């Protein structure tokens, strides 16, 4: 997500001079991409996902209105902000553009200072919207994804797995004797430990599509699309071992002298008749069993037979 760094502006205009003038104007502050017709605009928009498009209304073959409709029809480009730039200066034309969902409308011949001011304002709004979306999806303490984000992604990934028959692995990870940790070291130390655990979890994930979310107080859920049970179990075991290797002292633990975690996991075999809540419950049951069996271990349903029983650090 582009929360920091230079924002990208795509200028789509069939007139070479207009394109050049706008490009020169914007270049000192933004990364500028150019398109000379509607088709090119759509292609560049899909490829580069600009933050804003300055879109000429009158272009041969595909006009700006058609480009905007196509952008909105594609999930990937649907939310890109668009400012129409048009020689059609009548209020009715402006109204059409705005009704179609354009963020703004600038009449030609344009004033450079006004263009820059309007572009800056739209890009500021884009930044603010992204920041709000980001905050709505992230847990404030651990900076992992939050429960809401997990629910959204889980639903999508579960559907995808059903559609393409690929496996989907899910694990629940819970800190051992964390209540005692808080009681012994205090709540602020507990928060620091939780953040350290979250960092270890994030660094242990292998693929961009993997997701770690804070599910509850000291419980983290891991979602690994397109990952077989054996592979997922290895990833989770490595994460648990990495957490123990942090050597966060835990004198009050009945399990080990350092902070440890337990995990339960399950893999949806793409073709099996299983709902997403069944898969989640399976992982939860395995987590419960891992706790009951003494904690500091990973248990997996349908684990590959050739894997040895997994466990984290030994006391
Ligand atoms: P188990 O090994 O069975 O998981 O035992 P536990 O003590 O970890 O589990 P329990 O459910 O009894 O206690 C969870 C503790 O996690 C209690 C709660 O104070 C602590 N906790 C939950 N969220 C936070 C948090 O945000 N910060 C801190 N410091 N502690 C938290
Ligand atoms: Mg716990």
- Compressed to H and E, one letter per element, the order equals EHEHEHEHEHHEHHEEHEHE
The separation of the N and C termini measures 41 Å
Fraction in beta strands: 15-25%
DSSP helical segment count: 10
* Rg over CA atoms: 26 Å
Q: How are the strands of the largest sheet arranged?
A: 2-1-3-4-5
What is the domain tally? 2
Bound molecules: 3'-deoxy-guanosine-5'-triphosphate, magnesium ion
DSSP summary, beta strand count: 10
Q: What's the architecture of the largest domain, going by CATH?
A: 2-Layer Sandwich
**Percent helix among the residues?**
40-55%
CATH topology of the largest domain: Alpha-Beta Plaits
Morphology: elongated
Structural class: alpha/beta
Q: Please name the fourth-level CATH homologous superfamily of the largest domain.
A: Reverse transcriptase/Diguanylate cyclase domain
Poorly predicted ranges (pLDDT <50, ≥5 residues)? 303-315
CATH class of the largest domain: Alpha Beta
Largest sheet composition: 5 strands, parallel
Please, could you describe this protein's structure?
Keywords: Phosphoprotein. The protein has 315 residues and is α/β, with parallel strands linked by helices. The chain has two domains: 8-135, Rossmann fold, CATH 3.40.50; 147-311, Alpha-Beta Plaits, CATH 3.30.70.270. Helices cover 46% and strands 17% of the residues. It has ten helices and ten strands. It has helices spanning 16-26, 38-48, 64-73, 91-99, 112-137, 147-164, 178-185, 187-204, 229-245, 276-292, and strands at residues 8-12, 31-35, 52-56, 81-86, 104-107, 168-175, 211-214, 219-225, 261-268, 298-300. The strands form two sheets. A five-stranded parallel beta sheet has the order 2-1-3-4-5, with helices on both faces. A hairpin with a 4-residue loop joins β7 (211-214) and β8 (219-225). α2 packs parallel to α3 (64-73), α7 crosses α8 (187-204) and α8 packs across α9 (229-245). The chain is elongated and about 75 Å long. The protein starts with 7 loop residues before the first strand and ends in a 15-residue tail after the last strand. It binds 3'-deoxy-guanosine-5'-triphosphate and magnesium ion. 3'-deoxy-guanosine-5'-triphosphate (GH3) is lined by residues 141, 174-180, 182, 187, 190-191, 194, 217-218, 291, 295.
